[in-house]
Amino acid sequence: MTFTTTETQELLPLYRSLRHLTRETISSECAKKLKAVLSEAVASGHLERNLFGLNPIVHDLHTALIAAREINLRDNSLVAFLLHDAVESRSVSQEQVEKLFGKDVATIVHGLVKTTELYDKNPSIESENFRDLLLSFAEDMRVIFLMIADRVCLMRSIRDTEAREARRKTAQEAAFLYAPLAHKLGLYKLKSELEDLSLKYLEPEVYYDLKEKLNQTKASRDQYIASFIAPVQKRLEQAGLSFSIKGRTKSIHSIYNKMKKQNCEFRFIYDLFAIRIILDSPPEREKSDCWQVYSIVTDMYQPNPKRLRDWLSIPKSNGYESLHITVMGPEGKWVEVQIRTRRMDEIAERGLAAHWRYKGVKSESGLDEWLTSVREALENSKEEDSRTLMDRFKMDLYEDEVFVFTPKGDLFKLPKGSTVLDFAFHIHSRIGCQCIGARINGRNCRIGTRLSSGDQVEILTSSAQTPKQDWLGLVVTGKARTKIRQELKEIAARQAEYAREDLQRKFKNRKIEYDEAVLMRLILRLGYKNVTDFYQALAKGTLDTGNVVDSYLEALHKEQEQEQNVPYRSAELYNTVPAEQFTQESLHKGHKQDVLVIDENLKDIDFHLAKCCNPIYGDEVFGFITSGGGVKIHRTDCPNAPQMRQRSPYRIVPARWAGKGSEGQYLITLRVVGHDDIGIVTNLTSIINKEPGCDLRSIRIDSHDGLFSGQLTLSVSDTHKLQALLRKLQTVRGIKQISR
After folding, report:
1. Which of 321, 428, 608, 645 has its CA 20 to 30 A from that of 312?
2. How confident is the model at residue 580, as a pLDDT?
3. How many CB atoms lie within 10 A of CB 609?
C-alpha cells in the first residue's frame, strides 16, 4: 500500500495532535514501539485500503483522535486501536502485541479483530452475524467505544465516495446500531452526529430541505433565544452563581423525528432549541445550586410539571445527570431548559469515559449490568429470528428506565414497561421462577403489574410456583425471557420423562413386549411429529395412556401376523467380518473403525432388521445397539435416525451389506397416490405379480374426492429389484406419487 501526497502530509500533524493529547498517559517508549510496529506493517505491504479506498493508518489516527477528544480515551485503548489493523493483516501477531505492549492492550486488540473479522471487508453487518457482533462488543466496553469512534470517522470520510450502495448500508447500520449504542453509553454528541449523517446519506432531500429551513429561521431563532436568556442571566448573576448559558438548536434528525411523530410540517415545530445552563459548582454544592437555578427559572416562567425530568436525584445508568424543565417563554412558546454542572455536562457530552475520570473508577455498575444482560440474552436466544432480535435489541438501547426500591431501600433500575415478574428475575432467577405476585407500596399486585419509578416492591414467592408459557407475554427484559424459556424446556423434559416411565410401567404390569419401532410408528400415526410432543400429551392428559396401550397392542399384533407370512433370514445367519475382531464387547465400546458387515454363514451377533424403516439388501444402513444388547439394522434415512444419533450416538454402529443379494425376502411398504380411475389398482397389482422376486403381501386403498391413497406391502430381495419395480409402477397412467 502506497501513501498519496495528501495522506503523507496528514500523517505528521495527526501524530503530533495525538501525542499532545496522550503525552501523560502513553509513554515515549510505548509510542516508539508502536511507531516501529506500524512502520513495519506498512513496509510489509500487507495493509490494504478498505472498500471506500481509505488508508488504514490515516483512518485509524483520525479515529484515535475522535476517541481521545470526544470520548476521553487516552491510554491502552488508543494503542490497541492503532495496532488492530496490523494484527488483522498478520503483520504482527497477537502474541507479539502482548509481549510488547502488555495483556490489557492484547485483550482489546483481540476484541477489535473479532469484530472487524465479522465485516469481512464489508462495511455493513448482515443480520445473521448481528448476534456475534454484539457478543464481541459485550466482551469489553472499550471495544464498543472504539467501534463507535471508528464508525463516526467512517461516516465523516465517505461524503464524496463513489461507492453509493456501500455508503447507504454503512449509514443504515450507523442509524440502527451505532447511534443507539452511543445513546445507551451517554455519548449524545456522537449519537446526534451519527443520526444526522445517516439521514444525510439515506434521505438527502429531507436533510438538505430541513437544513435550509433552519438556516432561514436562524436569525429569528437567535433573537428569541437572546430575549429568553437575558433576564435569566441577570437573575442568576444577582444570585452570585458562576455559570455559562447558551441556546442549542436541536439536531436535524431529532427535528425530522418530531415532525413524523406529530405528523406536522416544519413550521409547526416550536421547540427547535433548548437552553442549557452550566454551573461552575464545587462537588458538595452541585445539587443545591442546580435546584436554586430551577427555582429562579420557574419563578420567571411558568413550568410544565408533566415535563420535569429529575436525573439529579437518580442519575441514568450511563452516568447522565441533569435537570430538565419545560417552561412557557415569551410569545407563549414552550422552551426546554437543561440545568447541570460543568462535570455533568462533560459526562453528558463524552459519556462514561468522562464519568470514570471524575469518579476515579474503571467501570460503571449500571453498564456492567446492562452488558451482562446483553450476553445472557444473546447467548440464549438462538431460536429467535435474527431480525426480531435486532429490533428488540434496538428498543432496549433506547428504552427509558424506571427506578424501584426494595422494602430495605435498595434501588434497582429496570427498562420502562418492566413488570413485577421482570423485577423478580432481575433480583434472582430462583425468585423469578417462584414469583406469585408482589406488594407494591403496601398493596397486593399480580405478577404482570407494570412498575413505575419510585415504587417500593416486595416480591411474594411460593415453592409450589413454576413458570408458565403465558409468562413470556408478561416480561420485557431479555434476562427474564431467557430464563423463562429455559425453565419451560426443563419442565417439559421432566414431564415427558415421567410420562415415558409411566407408559413403560404399564407395559411391564400387563406383561406387554416393548418394541420401540412399533411405538414410533404408532406415535407418527397419532399425528405427533416427535416423541417429546407425544409424551407431553400423555403428561398433560390430552392423550389417555390406557388408549395408547390398547392401540400399541393392536399394532403389535398386526405386525407379528405380517412377519409370520414373510420368510425373513434368521439373525443367526448374520455376523461381522472378521468375527475375531468384532464382538459384543466391541459393539458397546463403539469403535469407529469397526463396521458391522451383514452376511450369511456366521452366527455370533444377535441382531435383526428394524420394522420402523424395513431395510432391504442394498440400502445404506447402520446398526443401533438395543437395551438388551442386540443390534437393530436401520436405514440411514430412517425417520427415527436423527433422534437416535442425537440422543444415543454411542450406540450407533456403522454397517454395510456384504456379498450379493440372496434369495431372501424383505418386507417393505409403498405409499401410492393417484386418480381414482377404474382399473388403476388392477394395473398396479398386475405389474407387481409379474415382477420376478417381488410378492404382494397386502393392499389397503382409501378413496376421497376423486383421488385414492393406499399402502402396498410387498416383499423384495434387494434395492435393484425395488427400483426396477418403482420405475414400472410410475408409468401407470393416473399415478401421481409413489414412494417407499
Report:
1. 428
2. 39
3. 22
Cβ neighbors of 652 (< 8 A, separation 6 or more) are 590, 622, 623, 624, 644, 645
Q: Tell me, which fold does domain 212-359 have in CATH?
A: Beta Polymerase; domain 2 (3.30.460)
Alpha carbon distances (Å) from 190 to 112, 140, 587, 599, 722:
20, 20, 65, 74, 70
With vertex at residue 643, the alpha carbon angle to CA 642 and CA 648, rounded to the nearest 5 degrees, is 110
| Beta-bridge mates of residue 415 | 401
Name residue 570's amino acid: S
Residue with cell 403428561: 539
Query: Which neighbouring-strand residues pair with 461?
Result: 435
Task: Name, in order, each residue with C-beta under 8 angstroms of 533's C-beta and a sequence gap of 6 or more.
Answer: none
| Alpha-carbon span 69 to 520, nearest angstrom | 67
Which amino acid type is present at position 229?
A: I
DSSP state of 462: -
Taking only the tens place, the pLDDT of each residue in 446-456 is 999 999 877 88
The architecture that CATH gives domain 5-157 is: Orthogonal Bundle (1.10)
- Residues 652, 595: Cα–Cα separation, whole Å: 11
Which residue type occupies 490? E
Task: Tell me which amino acid residue 468 is.
Answer: K
Closest to 624 in 3D by CA, of 605, 607, 637, 639: 607
Q: What is the spatial distance between Cα 648 and Cα 595, in angstroms, rounded to a whole number? A: 18
**Domain layout of the chain by residue ranges:** 5-157, 212-359, 487-564, 571-657, 667-739
- Confidence (pLDDT) at 132: 55
pLDDT computed for residue 105 by the predictor: 92
Nearest residue to 117 via CA among 152, 154, 150, 84: 84
* CATH code that applies to domain 667-739: 3.30.70.260
pLDDT of residue 392: 53
Contact 420, 435 (CB under 8 A): yes
Spatial separation of the C-alpha atoms in residues 366 and 145, rounded to whole Å = 16
The length of the chain in residues reads: 740
* Cα–Cα distance, 90 to 95 (Å, whole number): 11
CA 467 to the chain's CA centroid? 22
| Contact present, 712 and 688 (Cβ < 8 Å) | yes
Compute the C-alpha angle 699/705/710, nearest 5°.
15
In the numeric block, which cell numbers belong to residue 322?
A: 441533569
pLDDT at 561: 63
Q: How far is CA 239 from the centre of its chain?
A: 54
pLDDT digits 0-9 by tens, 331-341: 888 899 999 99
Q: Which residue has the cell 413550568?
A: 303
d(CA 278, CA 70): 19
Q: Mean pLDDT per 10-residue run, the chain (740 residues)?
A: 86 91 90 91 87 91 93 87 91 91 91 74 49 60 87 94 89 86 82 94 94 89 91 94 90 90 82 90 92 94 87 80 91 90 84 49 48 55 48 55 82 86 92 94 92 88 91 88 87 84 85 77 79 82 83 78 49 39 41 60 63 84 78 86 80 77 70 76 81 79 73 83 85 82
- Inter-residue contact 498 to 545 (CB < 8 Å): no
Instruction: Say how far residue 676 (Cα) sits from the centre of its chain.
Output: 51
Cα 494 from Cα 43, distance rounded (Å): 63
pLDDT score at 137: 61
Smallest Cα–Cα separation from 634: which of 624, 644, 625? Answer: 624
Please state, in angstroms and rounded to a whole number, the distance separating the CA atoms of residues 29 and 27. Answer: 5
| Angle formed at CA 576 by CA 575 and CA 581, multiple of 5 degrees | 135
Find how far residue 593's CA is from the centre of its chain: 39
Q: Is 695 left (phi over 0), alpha (psi -120 to 50) or beta?
A: beta
